[in-house]
Design a protein that fits this description.
- This protein has helices at 3-14, 20-28, 44-48, 61-73, 85-94, 131-143, 159-163, 166-171, 185-190, 213-220, 235-250; strands at residues 32-34, 39-41, 54-55, 78-81, 98-101, 106-109, 120-125, 147-151, 174-179, 197-201, 227-229.
- It is of the alpha/beta class and 252 residues long.
- The chain has a 5-stranded parallel sheet with strand order 8-7-9-10-11. Strands 3-4-6-5 form a 4-stranded mixed sheet, with helices on both faces.
- The chain starts with a helix and ends with a helix.
Length: 252
């Protein structure tokens, strides 16, 4: 059950179109669908306004498909992250509406598109090598009902590229800023905008970047105010958090 279904059920009860017993049965239904290998949280959309997300890495294509079937049976959209080509083929074969986002390593399935909220999220990445993580954030934010503006390849090695987009960045309700190497871009952006900045360190860089740890530490030690940091390569987490912030901004 999701928030819209719960609201509709209560509205129908209030209008005399649904019995008390039906409402109670709906809310008493077990919130977990046990598939043996996975226990799908079918009430997460009711609590979080978005259903459980499928993390594809480590799962077989058949397992991912079965979880997606269960989510769709409950009328919920599907977001599968970190999918392989095999995962994508299996999902597209089973579901005509499945959309593969190869750069983001995601698959989305929506029976109908969510209406877009007012305002937008800016997803900014320092270099082309950071695009997979940035796109994971963008795809996550979009399926959660947000408009996303992408700003690519504006790292601090050529600061004029980012400054050319400054007016756009300052209009965003929240910004996701993705960078590897020394991870300096989120600090620069946060010093120029009055909105929350979610920094995403990537594992891109030479040996002393230690697989993204250097960028992570740089972002955690940012002297710019308003920077929050997620884990290395966690575009999904950044896109999800940005969506939650944008919901609050859109409610004004």
């Amino acid at each position: 059950m999701n928030h819209a279904e719960a609201s509709r059920l209560l509205d129908n009860f209030r209008a005399g179109k649904t019995s008390r017993e039906k409402v109670l049965r709906a809310f008493q239904a077990a919130p977990v669908a046990d598939l043996g290998f996975a226990k799908v949280d079918t009430h997460r959309a009711l609590r979080k306004h978005f259903p459980e997300v499928i993390f594809g890495a480590g799962k077989t294509p058949a397992q991912v498909v079965k979880i997606a079937i269960k989510l769709l049976e409950h009328g919920q959209p599907v977001l599968a992250t970190r999918v392989s080509a095999d995962h994508a083929r299996a999902l597209k074969k089973k579901f005509k509406l499945a959309v593969h986002h190869p750069l983001a390593r995601c698959v989305t399935i929506e029976k109908k598109s969510s209406p877009r909220r007012a305002g937008f999220i800016a997803v900014v990445c320092a270099g082309t090598s950071d695009l997979p993580v940035a796109e994971e954030a963008a795809v996550t934010a979009e399926i959660m009902g947000n408009r996303v503006e992408r700003v690519h390849d504006v790292g601090v090695a050529g600061l004029h590229r980012m400054l050319a987009k400054l007016e756009l960045l300052q209009r965003a309700n929240v910004l996701v800023v993705v960078a590897g190497m020394e991870g300096a871009l989120p600090s620069v952006v946060a010093g120029l905008v009055a909105k929350p900045v979610i920094a995403v360190p990537t594992s891109i860089g030479y040996g002393a970047s230690f697989g993204g740890i250097a960028a992570l530490l740089a972002m955690l030690n940012s002297c710019a105010s308003g920077v929050t940091v997620v884990n290395i390569d966690n575009g999904f987490g950044a896109g999800y958090a940005a969506s939650q912030i944008n919901v609050l901004a859109s409610q004004k």
